[in-house]
Amino acid sequence: MAHIKLLIWACCLALSTSFAYGLGVNWGTQAAQTLPPSTIVQMLKDNKIDKVKLFDSDHWTVKYFAGTGIEVMLGIPNNQLAKFADDYDFAKEWVKNNVSTHLYNGGVDIKFVAVGNEPFLKSYNGSFLKSTFPALQNVQKALNSAGLGDKIKATIPQNADVYESGNSGPSQGDFRSDIRDLMQKNCSFFKDNNTPFLVNIYPFLSLHENKHFPIEFAFFDGQTKAVRDNGISYTNMFHANLDTLVVSLKKASCSGVKIIVGEIGWPTDGDLYGNVTLAKRFYSGFFKKMATKKGTPLYPGFIEYYLFSLTDESEKSILPGSFERHWGHF
Asked: PANTHER family of this UniProt entry (predicted)?
């Protein structure tokens, strides 16, 4: 299995030396045994991966990225959002201890702070709706107060379920009706602070959750009949999904907000569709698409991506499915 997984990276790296520009990876640590940060850093450097997205801000881990040239996105877990929302002084102290302390000459290149992780996911039943936006405001305010606001931005990694278009296509996209006002506030904040919208898009999950989803539409190899929407042809779910977000942002008067794909990947085990064969097919098409440095029909420019995930995580919850423990590339 490990040998086959490495072939996925071979597909990526064989394309070109410059291809990895803009390619990041998520490093989750919910595993019985985790690799030392020094090993992780060397793996990223060896494979020319220049960005890493973390799910916390553990000082012992973050310090290993000093002087590496790897951009780091720190994370704030959902269970801490209420503290950040209720106490600005707490946010200031967190920035001092988890951000500023790493920014000496030759230190860590921190680019973003991810406030929560998919906090508006439907399955959370509104648990973080009241705390996320105030937490976002306080973190960015604390970064500004520390003189870091121009360089480091606070954003929110969002699941693609925050917007929808029904069966009508991307041109009818809009943010979910139950959180539309909240998303308007979030997006206006992003626009005002020159902050990107971070979205997680998983064609695999569309296939896993909907037995009627056309399997060919999950891949990038053009083996499906094009779907026409408002004069645009779509041959894969990713383009259609991201363009639904583009339309949703436009309706929220936030067309200028940059989009970054915070998570994208395919599991190698644990599901009928989660296997090495389909993972290799997905990544082969995805890496070729990324190498073109072209976006989508409605967002044609360069897009940054963070692959999910660097390694398997043996202690992740399997409530969604056993595949949750098999997203690792290595």
From this structure: GLUCAN ENDO-1,3-BETA-GLUCOSIDASE BG1-RELATED-RELATED
Q: Specify the pLDDT at position 264.
A: 98
Which is catalytic among the residues 164, 209, 263, 315? 263
Q: Determine contact, residues 92/144, Cβ cutoff 8 Å.
A: no
Type of residue numbered 196? P
Confidence of residue 15 (pLDDT cuts 50, 70, 90): very low
Over the stretch 173-221, which tens digit does the pLDDT of each residue have? 999 999 999 999 999 999 999 999 999 999 999 999 998 999 999 999 9
**Residue 315 annotated in active site:** no
**87-91 mean pLDDT:** 98
164 included as an active-site residue? no
Q: How many C-beta atoms surround the C-beta of residue 108 within 10 A?
A: 21
Number of domain units in the chain: 1
Helical ranges in the chain per DSSP H = 2-13, 37-46, 59-62, 81-86, 88-98, 132-145, 180-192, 203-209, 237-251, 276-291
Catalytic residue among 118, 304, 313, 324: 118
Q: 225 lies in a domain?
A: yes
